[in-house]
Amino acid sequence: MSEHPGRFRVGAALLALLGVVGLYAFLQSPYFAITEVRVEGAATIDPDSLIERAQIRLGDNVLHVDLHAVASRLASHPRIQHAAVVRRLPGALIISITEYEPVAVLELQEGRVGVAVDGKRVPLAAGEEEHLPAVAGVPEDVLPLALRVSALLPGAVRREMAAIGFDDEAGLWLMTRSGTRILVGDQEDLERKLAIVAELVEAGRWRLIDVRYPRSPVVRTQ
User: Fold this and answer.
1) CATH fold of 33-99, please?
2) 96 forms bridges with which residues in the sheet?
């Protein structure tokens, strides 16, 4: 009788070991092979190039993928602001990215480059430069204001802007592609100023729009 408990424990241990081995074998099985990689949020970047950068291969075990390492490789792309990777068992990986949105163009020695509202320099996609204002002659300490101005403009209005500049007398100014000069001044009441600018630009063509004092904006016709 005293031998029965020992036999029972040995049997239970063997069953547990078989269960662990079976579970391990199942987790290594083709059931968890990567069969799909989906990219979400890519606006200007080719999804296939992102999968290549992520170093993900179809057929690899989805459970062996280091999600943090994959996200870090993706985030090293100069156009990507944020990247995340999640598993969808049994065999899918979902890549979600947020791209930097350039709001202006900077002229550098190495060429023209896009710049996001936070000052991050980003490569431009084909045709993107044509719809962004060029920043010229803006002091470094005024550059954040220039970028914020461009970011706050509605997309359709921003595409009408050819340049953002600065001078000591007028402060920050904009120039439309049709030749309208827009005086913005400083950051005081900025959102109100730009709301007026958007309304006037959409309403017609002007020679000058002065919103430095938004309670009494000044316009001059062509």
Assistant:
1) Ubiquitin-like (UB roll) (3.10.20)
2) 40, 84
Angstrom distance (rounded) from CA 16 to CA 219: 84
**Domain boundaries defined on the chain:** 1-30, 33-99, 104-220
What's this model's pTM, rounded to 2 decimal places? 0.81
CATH topology of domain 104-220: Rossmann fold (3.40.50)
Q: Residue 65: phi, psi to the nearest 5?
A: -75, 125
Give alpha helix (H) positions in the chain. 3-27, 47-54, 67-75, 143-152, 155-158, 190-203
CB-based contact 78:19 (threshold 8 Å): no
Residues 16-59: pLDDT tens digits? Answer: 555 555 444 444 567 888 999 999 999 999 999 999 999 999 99
Are 143 and 153 within 8 A, CB to CB?
no
> How does DSSP assign 62-115, residue by residue?
GGG--HHHHHHHHHTSTTEEEEEEEEETTTEEEEEEEE----EEEEETTEEEEE
Residues 76, 81: Cα–Cα separation, whole Å: 9
Contact 99, 79 (CB under 8 A): yes
Tokens linked to 116:
């996001």
